[in-house]
Amino acid sequence: MTQTETAPVIVTPEQFLTYWQGQRRLTRRVIEAFPIAQTEDQLFSFSIGGMRPFGVMAWEIYQVSALTLGGLLSGEWPMPDWREGVSFERAALLKAWDDLTEQINRDFLKVDIAFYAQQHLLPWGEMSGWAAAIYAVDNETHHRGEGYVYLRALGIEPPAFYER
Amino acid sequence: MTQTETAPVIVTPEQFLTYWQGQRRLTRRVIEAFPIAQTEDQLFSFSIGGMRPFGVMAWEIYQVSALTLGGLLSGEWPMPDWREGVSFERAALLKAWDDLTEQINRDFLKVDIAFYAQQHLLPWGEMSGWAAAIYAVDNETHHRGEGYVYLRALGIEPPAFYER
């Protein structure tokens, strides 16, 4: 039934799903690791070198992930409205995050595998479905790495990178 | 000839090679972006929150990448000696980096594609060849993200993340 049995592949859809969700679980732990100092949530206030707070990056990760799932399923890649639905509130972010987790679990394996080799016009350029999918994960890993430095600067030990 | 013609796949070996080398080119630009203040190379001295300087992380990225290429080709995954060949000198790092770039270009497509689905015993656990390959890239993207914060804290605009 699976491609693995007929011809070996680098990664199956099932493996990619596991990989992506593992990354998303780690990012969720990083979100949760940010401290609340008095009434101020460092998730939305702490910053280094003029960069965005990690909570704002996490909303971007969420929106890029949602766009990517939707695009792979529908062929539509609309530029996200970066402010739509975004709330500078930790509980709202985690709720949206968890809803998307369920949606990815429900729908990711419905993606037509032919979509990965095809070229798609994303808001940030034309690329294959593979490049679009892995870009979503790379963007997450990149910003989460930035979040690790914020946590260290706040004196907090970040979650282990290799635990997914 | 290619798998794409017979059955669609998420990513071909050629696409993975292009992807990996794009990431490595970006990391190389980040290495080069670190300033030298008087006689002190910030690549090997600047740090936030007790973390390693970016040059030390870059040597780790280099070693994990070399291990991964070697492991995928040979099935051998020895624990790297993290100090072997490591020099706290920018030119030596870039030289090793460029040599590995050539080696990856020369050898990556020789990897038996069946290796990706098989389980391998890496120094950091048992995983599929796919998981090992993508872990090398993730580790690079993660630490490079940390390097972006260092650069911003030093007042330097990092290279564009999406340019590969």
UniProtKB/TrEMBL annotation, chains A, B:
GO MF assignments: metal ion binding
Pfam families in UniProt: DinB
Top-level taxon of the source organism: Bacteria
SUPFAM superfamilies on file: DinB/YfiT-like putative metalloenzymes
Keywords assigned by UniProt, alphabetized: Metal-binding
Family: Belongs to the DinB family.
Name listed for the protein in its UniProt record: Damage-inducible protein DinB
Naturally occurring in which organism (per UniProt): Deinococcus psychrotolerans
